[in-house]
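Notes from hallway chat w/ T.B., transcribed later so I don't forget. T.B. wanted the structure written out for a chain they're using in a teaching module, and asked if we could keep both sequence and structure tokens in one place. Agreed to drop them here.
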Amino acid sequence: MLTVVACGKDSSAPQTPSPPPQTGVGGATLKAGAPTPQSPINNQQVNTTPILLVVTNTGSNYTTPVPLQYRFEIYNAANAVVQSVLVAGGSGTTSYPVSIDLEGDQPYSWQARAEYQGTFGPWSPRAAFVAPTTTGYLRGNELYDPLIDGKTVGTVHGPITWIPGVGVRLDSESSYIEYALPQFLSGGEYSALLTNLSVVSTTEDPKDRVIAMREGTAAINDNIYRMTVDKRGNGAIAWRFLTGRNYSGSYIETTSSQRFPFPFHENLTYFVRASWGGGVFRVLWREGGFDGNPIYDVSRGYDREYTPVPHMIFAGSPYQGGDRGDPSTVQGMVIRQIWVSARSRPGYANK
């Protein structure tokens, strides 16, 4: 039981909570009990957003009731506070709809306590839950788009077909999905999972692309911040990376000796990742998904910083009438789990 100095001389119970000289459990300074977590609890996975944290209210031990507020704190798996917020108490229970994006399918814990005018009661027991599977976001210089549920956080151009649980099929060389990063990413990765890739010719034609980046709306073939990764007709893998200059010798790309045919199979999943930063650009392909066998891993150094503003990301390759060249998305490819970030690709993006 916490001890708080009474505010009135003639009452056996305190009238209002004055700052006390003594504190209770956990340093509590408010004569009140701990609220009781109602939901989510017991490591249940939440299926709806926003996530609603609910506690059964506690009461204060004062003759005159005081309007309690409740502080909710949320912790990640590393026990770091990811949000701390104070809300008005409800009637019998108090709820807080979580206002931040949590990482999908990841464990979190939370607790709550009563507060009043700078004083606070003891924390509730910790409750645990698993965040819902994320539906994607564009936040700062980070992009995540699962593309497995018939939705995208990007803008679709050209014909596409949604394949539930598998991804989105880009049905023509003019099909692509466009994303605008709120902030440019000077160093990080663009990675994705691809299916329905195959060898369609005995030469490198068509020279089509699976992923791309650029600055703004200038044509991809002339863009000074072009990044493209190709799967060519005969299965050859190629790429080009520019950092602010597009004249000959100022950028890096695959040479003919680095472009060898690979026997892509339509029914297999391929992981592709382009990474840049610290003066090194690298392209990695794996057959069999994120944990599959490496089939291509080439890196080269570059100078200057990669600073496209605005920083545009593409599934496939962008094309508008009048651009130099031709539409050049790999027709029929299926893409899912797009990740662009300075952070390492999370496990939930590898499904």
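Follow-up for T.B.: The chain has two domains: 25-130, 137-350. Might be a good example for the class.
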